[in-house]
Amino acid sequence: MTSTLWQCEQLRAGQVWNKVLFHSRGEAEHFMQQMRRVEPDIFWRMEAVAAAQVWN
Fold first, then answer.
1. Three-state secondary-structure class, residue 44
2. How much is the pLDDT for 51?
3. pTM for the structure as a whole
4. CA angle, 16 then 49 then 24, to 5°
5. pLDDT means per 10 residues in the chain (56 residues)?
6. CA–CA dist 13, 9 (Å, integer)
7. Strand partners, 9
8. How far apart are CA 14 and CA 21, in angstroms?
9. Are 9 and 49 in contact (CB under 8 A)?
């Protein structure tokens, strides 16, 4: 397991509506590309997150 996870957040009206975690940046980017095709009017943000912040 890596020490860094990639988190994608779905934003609507400035609020986070959904969060999805991935083990690699490539998986996260692929997911965001698919979501942009399906829902082009919904904004997604991607960021690196330390695994320690997600699990104890």
1. strand
2. 85
3. 0.82
4. 105
5. 87 91 96 94 93 75
6. 13
7. 19, 45
8. 20
9. no
The order of strands in the sheet holding 43-50 is 15-22, 4-12, 43-50
Give pLDDT, residue 35: 94
C-alpha gyration radius of the chain: 12
Q: Are 17 and 11 in contact (CB under 8 A)?
A: yes
Q: Give the separation between CA 23 and CA 37, rounded to whole angstroms.
A: 22
Question: What is the residue type of 23?
Answer: H
Q: Please state, as a whole number, how many other Cβ atoms lie within 10 Å of the Cβ of residue 5.
A: 21
- 41 with 23: CB under 8 angstroms? no
